[in-house]
Design a protein that fits this description.
This protein is an alpha+beta fold. It has 3 helices and 7 strands.
């Protein structure tokens, strides 16, 4: 089971979070990077959240070509229930070229925050923009 989430904004943050089986890692230029093992229960709860988001219904690309700076994001999933790669630039699922994140995208961020044990993950970024 594999999950990778990347979130990048100019001058503000650059996160790459990867879960491979039970090995969780985060790389960032703005906060300390880490690697750690998560327990099976937490992994199961995370994958249940991912299933509930229904990434299989998302398009492969969300791109607002009217903006050149802003937020770039991506998610890759390889599991027994889904193989999917999704990328976005200043656009989100269930949005019509909205620069602001949508509720369904925020569910993805909440799932990543759960995985990281950081309920404030990307909350400070949203306040700064």
């Amino acid at each position: 089971m594999y999950f990778k989430f990347r979130y990048f904004t100019d001058g503000c943050c650059d996160y790459t979070i990867t879960l491979k089986n039970h090995q969780l890692s985060m790389k960032s230029y703005f906060v300390p990077s880490f690697k750690r093992t998560i327990d099976a229960q937490k992994a199961t709860q995370f994958w249940d959240q991912v299933k509930a988001i229904q990434l299989e219904t998302w398009k492969d690309s969300y791109n607002n070509s009217n903006l050149c700076d802003g937020v770039q994001w991506g998610v890759k999933v390889r599991t027994d229930f889904l193989i999917k790669k999704i990328e976005g630039s200043n656009d989100y699922p269930d949005g019509v070229f909205f620069v602001e994140e949508t509720p369904i995208f925020n569910q993805l961020i909440d799932a990543v925050a759960f995985l990281l044990d950081d309920k404030n993950f990307l909350k400070d970024v949203e306040e700064e923009e």
